[in-house]
Amino acid sequence: MSGTPVRKRKRHKHNLAGYAFLAPWLIGLFAFTLIPMVYSLYLSLTKFNLLTAPQWIGFENYVRLFSDERYLQSVRVTLIYVVTSVPLKLAAALLVAVALNRGLKALGFYRATFYLPSLLGASVAVSVMWRQIFSREGLLNQFLGIFGVQGSDWIGDPRYAIWTLVALSAWQFGTPMLIFLAGLKQLPQDLYEAAAIDGAGKVTTFFRITLPLLSPMVFFNLVLETINAFQTFTPAYVVSGGLGGPIDSTLLYTLYLYLKGFGSMQMGYASAMAWVLFAVIGLFTAVYFWSARKWVNYAD
Amino acid sequence: MSISRRGLFGLAGGLAAASVAGCGFAPTSSGGAASNSLTFRWWGGEARNKAYQAALKIFTEKTGIKVDAQYSGYDGYFNKLNTEFAGGNPPDIFQMDTALVSTYAAKGVLTDLSSYIPGTIHLDTLYPAVRSAGAVGGKPYGVPSGSGIAPMLYDKTVFEQAKIPVPADTWTWDDFAKLAGELSKAMGQGKYGSLDASKDDSGALQPWLRQRGKDLYNAEGKLAFTKDDLAEWFTFWDGLRRSGAICPPEMLSNTDSATGNHPLIAGQIAMTTGWGLAQMAPLTQHQLDIVIVPRGSNGKTGQAISGGVLLSVPVKSKNAEGAAKLIDFFISDVDAIKAMALSRGIPPSSKALETLTPSLSAADKRDVTYAQYAAEEVAKDALPPAPTAPPGYNDAKTALDAAAKQIAFGKMSIPDAVAQYFRDAEAALNGAK
């Protein structure tokens, strides 16, 4: 292990250069991620109204969470959103990826077209457009009107409002689609040839060959999209006009966190919410990794 | 090739020296700039933004103080401001909501403007009733720029088409209920006599309470009405909702008078409480008008005068002297009064009224004559003035909105919603202390 003193010093110098090059990233990590995180952990144990100094109150914020009905409502809304939007988005992504992977001529064009909604991503413009489409006098109801169907006010009705957000999320399937498409291109063709000789149909081939071989990609997308879904903010903020309405039916977790922290100026409480979310996302990810051993097949 | 330790430290030393030099230089540059410039933040629609910019141009010409104008809509305005206050970097002067001034004053982030009155700010130009609109605990933390009494807005054209006489100034809540029902029938399917105002705290619930000798809040910042009062209020609106006289709750998701995204503009309703005649009148072919909010059975209006919007100066303002000058400019300078016209409410002084009267548009004139009439009626009420909205007001207001909508969507019974409101509103008012 231990070299001569000269070599040691050389290695040290060598490392120093490495750290120097890493410095911009390291400074960013400490200044914008780690230190704020530690500070927010401290704030979560205080009462802090943004304008006067934080007061230490221990775990009171965390205890209060569980008797706050609006908080519990935001948890319910978020779970419904995550559990429905993630599978829908991945299914759409996989479906389109498989459809595009059949040697289409203008593949580049289609790929770009399907990816476009994701590029626009969580932008405000798309959310505003969504609000227009699903409002009482919106595009959807005008379209339904052609067939004599009187559509309801999708944004204004608490029974439907959250589903417009789920639909928005599913529509933005571009990123997982690209990853699936890249995965599909890597699959060994000889397996398909063998399956075809054995007389396997398209459906059997998909479920017995494509899906198992693609499972690492499914896993990767599942983890990423779940984390994203838990953190969704912009669409709920814009579509509901900033308040998570009607009657808190679109009050996603981060939106309530924002309203508490910056609207009601309860930054200590909002920090506690952030740490609970962090723990829950960690838990979901851990469960995914634990279960992955049972259903993810790596080629090697 | 690698960087030697000496080289690295040399580099770091150079950086440190540069940053020290930067610090040494900074005060002179920002100090020099501060006396000559201001950052000024407001919220508003397009008309107000244009008016402010025209006025600020005149201000710069007259005083040589440059103003960096920053503006947005009301949504998110205070959230952004809170973040800047927290970061110790608020604007030098900003537009303040009358209902929120006590919340901010209680946290000690606003400048007590006493020392600028009457030297720089000539507060005595304003009507006596308006002067104290920005006062908290007797100290001025904001100066009003307009006054007003929230009316009921209605669509005159719809009334004429339905051959129903427009509401009289003497109308009561019973008259309102009857009118709304008749209008709903006359207007046809999918259209309603009135917007659901059960959630409107200052425009509807407050006058209704004051007509009964109560109020939203008392001087100690507690709720000044009982659960029975609120249950009666919600029951009144629930009856109207069930009979189809007022709109279903889905329609309440789009009621922004500043952008014209409002059921009154869309022709879906004929009456609504609240401001906005001047903003909404140009957006529809129909003729709009205003009338005083329905009276109590004792004939009282119960209305409370609002100071419109205020201008406040943060404690951390880099140029409080300049900010005070700008505040006075808006209330004293004839050119500024002309530029702003009614974009921030009804003229708050006889000086402003006399300056503006010759050039007012028809809708503006209607606003002014209504305001004068309403002010006289409020004086006849002989009720104590409404206390300033207490700290925590905004969350209490949100709680009323939530409770009213829970009932409207049929998710909660009236007693449950009332209980929820009292729990949430009391927590908000106590927690803000």
Automatic annotation (TrEMBL), chain A:
InterPro entries: ABC_transporter_permease, MetI-like, MetI-like_sf
GO terms under cellular component: plasma membrane
GO biological process: transmembrane transport
Keywords from the named record: Cell membrane, Membrane, Transmembrane, Transmembrane helix, Transport
TM annotation in the entry: 21-42, 79-100, 112-130, 160-184, 205-224, 236-259, 271-290
Location(s) in or outside the cell: Cell membrane
Predominant place of localization: membrane
Membrane topology: Multi-pass membrane protein
ABC transmembrane type-1 domain sequence ranges: 75-288
Keyword Phosphoprotein (UniProt): no
Keyword Cell membrane: yes
Family per similarity comment: Belongs to the binding-protein-dependent transport system permease family.
Name listed for the protein in its UniProt record: Sugar ABC transporter permease
Automatic annotation (TrEMBL), chain B:
Coiled-coil region list: none
Database matches in InterPro entries: Bact_solute-bd_prot1, SBP, TAT_signal
Stored CDD domains: PBP2_TMBP_like (cd13585)
Highest rank taxon of the organism: Bacteria
PROSITE patterns referenced in this protein's UniProt entry, alphabetically: PROKAR_LIPOPROTEIN (PS51257), TAT (PS51318)
SUPFAM superfamilies: Periplasmic binding protein-like II
Name used for this protein in its record: Sugar ABC transporter substrate-binding protein
Classification of source organism: Bacteria, Bacillati, Actinomycetota, Actinomycetes, Pseudonocardiales
